TrEMBL record:
It comes from Peribacillus simplex. Its cofactor is Mg(2+). Monomer. The gene is aroK. This is Shikimate kinase. It comes from the Bacteria. Belongs to the shikimate kinase family. Its EC number is 2.7.1.71.
């Protein structure tokens, strides 16, 4: 489902995956390594509302957040040569999945539950979807969400890899794909 009208080398890269797998951290690193601009969709939504995500959820509700998420992604994913990290729930919306898969290269950052659960303390304060859920409920959400992340072009399992190792793997695999599908003359 990759857009045939745009050169692969020009297409923006979109990172997907569950909350806390590293989309923002690794997206920033990859952007630096490829000399591209980085866009974090959660941060763009927060700028639009001028408040943190937890406040948006409290004041306006998840529905308003999801509507803004869709309009922000619809507009920004049309741009070329960007590195874009979307929120962990963005691919719940079919329209978002379709627009990202047809305009961009979608990279899934995969992390096993056993590794993910060690990160929970880093995440809970800023991720409203995790708040008020027990660990068992979060585990259930984690496994239910895997279905939406099955929509991707490429994937890396980040268990046991640090941020730089993941970013290097992604950059190397993109370069291999570019060279195979669009060799430079
Ligand atoms: N490969 C890694 N190894 C160790 N820690 C990591 C790794 N990737 C990310 N982290 C850490 O995990 C935490 C969450 O990362 P990050 O905020 O990038 O996740 P995210 O996928 O953008 O989450 P969200 O979907 O909620 O925005 C950060 O503290 C980050 O430093
Ligand atoms: O997985 C989710 O539903 C979310 C993930 C975060 O990135 C934010 O987009 C928000 O906290 C919701
Ligand atoms: Mg993030």
């Amino acid at each position: 489902m990759i857009n045939k009208n745009t050169s692969l080398r020009m297409q923006s890269i979109v990172f997907i995956g569950f909350m806390g797998v590293g989309k923002t951290t690794i997206g920033q690193k990859v952007a630096r390594k490829l000399y591209r601009d980085f866009i974090d969709i959660d941060q763009e939504i927060e700028k639009e509302f001028n408040m943190p995500t937890t406040e948006i959820f409290k004041k306006f509700g998840e529905k308003a957040f999801r509507e803004k998420e869709k309009s922000v992604i619809e507009s920004l994913s049309q741009q070329q040569l960007k590195i874009i990290s979307v929120g962990g729930g963005a691919f719940l919306q079919e329209d978002i999945r379709n627009i990202c898969l047809s305009n961009c290269i979608v990279f899934y950052l995969d992390l096993s539950w056993e590794y993910w659960k060690e990160r929970i303390g880093l995440l809970i304060d800023s991720r409203p979807v995790l708040q008020s859920r027990s660990l068992e409920e979060i585990e259930e959400l984690f496994y239910t969400r895997q279905e939406i992340y099955s929509y991707h072009h490429s994937k890396v399992n980040t268990n046991d890899l640090d941020v730089d190792e993941v970013a290097d793997f992604i950059v190397d695999s993109l370069k291999v794909a570019w060279d195979i599908y669009e060799p430079l003359k």
